[in-house]
Amino acid sequence: MQPHRIKKRAILGGTFDPIHWGHLGIAYAALAQAGLNQIIWVTDRHKRDPHQQSRIKFEHRQAMVRLAIAPEPAFCLGSPPPEDPKAGYAIVTGQTLQQHYPNSQWYWIIGADAFSTLPKWYRAAELVEAFEWLVAPRSPAQPQINSPAETPFGMEVFPFNLQEKWPQFNSTLGTNSTNDLDNKALIKTQEICQQVAIAFKTRQIHLRWQILPTQPLPIASTLLRRHWNDAPTIRTWVPEPVQIYIQTHHLYQNPQHPLPPDSSSIPRL
Predict the structure, then answer these.
(1) Counting CB atoms within 10 angstroms of each CB, which of 32, 48, 92, 166 has the fewest?
(2) Membrane-spanning regions, if any (predicted)?
(3) Greater pLDDT, 82 or 113
(4) Domain count, the chain
(5) Is position 256 within any domain?
(6) Range with the lowest mean pLDDT among 30-39, 147-156, 204-213?
(7) 164 pLDDT tier (thresholds 50, 70, 90)
């Protein structure tokens, strides 16, 4: 009997409120760079940041992720976590999936800002040693916006080019060149990763990490929630099936704390 071939699997977790092209772009970059066989999307049942709360139930967020990832065979939706908040800890999620998928080499896909908090995570030492970390670059500071036409709400995102596995978008946002933005994001992300690695090294823990070659998109779930009604172009930031789901179920209709129409504040992904 031949032994089972070890597969490369990664976990990509988040509240996905809602899922958008930025999340998908990160996932495709991870597929290509690490040669992954599968990415397991895990939707957080409980939102831990009180400033990011919304009224959208877990079941809706889970359904939107299912629709968004359906076209890609390498994407898989993780099983719903139990109601117990403790089950949402990363170490519990990771160990549960490792038991479910034996004979796997494991990765964790994460944004640079979240990665910077890794030393403070529950049972961080066990988690760090069990995964290799694929870090999505942090978006650079947003440039000065001089007119309403230059707000992020005027940016239109188009579906993935299936050959390039990356969304196309049009935007007048900012004046810096793409290379300049890429370099700033890369430098900042490298600094974050090195600081986290040093923090674990002082505890005799070896951290394996690599930065994903992605261009951070200036889009965020926070803006989608707040401006779904008043900025129609923003709806192109999510795949069409997700657009239809949001409209059908009347989600994001009454934002609690809307930003002004010409706001230049772009929250992190």
Answers:
(1) 48
(2) none
(3) 113
(4) 1
(5) no
(6) 147-156
(7) low
Q: Provide the CA 257 distance to its chain's centre, in angstroms.
A: 23
pLDDT at 256 over 90: no
Q: What is the DSSP string of 190-228?
A: HHHHHHHHHHHHTTT-PPPEEE------S--HHHHHHHT
Tokens of 266: 């772009």
Contact, 118 vs 85, CB < 8 A? no
* Cβ-proximal residues to 58 (8 Å cutoff; 6+ apart), any chain: 43, 45, 80
Is residue 73 situated within a structural domain?
Answer: yes
Rounded to 10 deg, the angle between the 58-69 and 21-34 helix axes is: 50
Q: Residue 65 contacts by C-beta under 8 Å, 6 or more apart in sequence?
A: 16, 19, 41, 43, 77
Task: Retrieve residue 178's tokens.
Answer: 């793409």
| Alpha-carbon distances of 154 from 150, 157, 159, 221, rounded to whole Å | 7, 10, 16, 16
Residue 234 belongs to a domain with what CATH number?
A: 3.40.50.620
Show the tokens assigned to 110.
């994460």
Partnered with residue 166 across adjacent β-strands are: 161
CA distances from 83 to 46, 73, 86 (A): 9, 28, 9
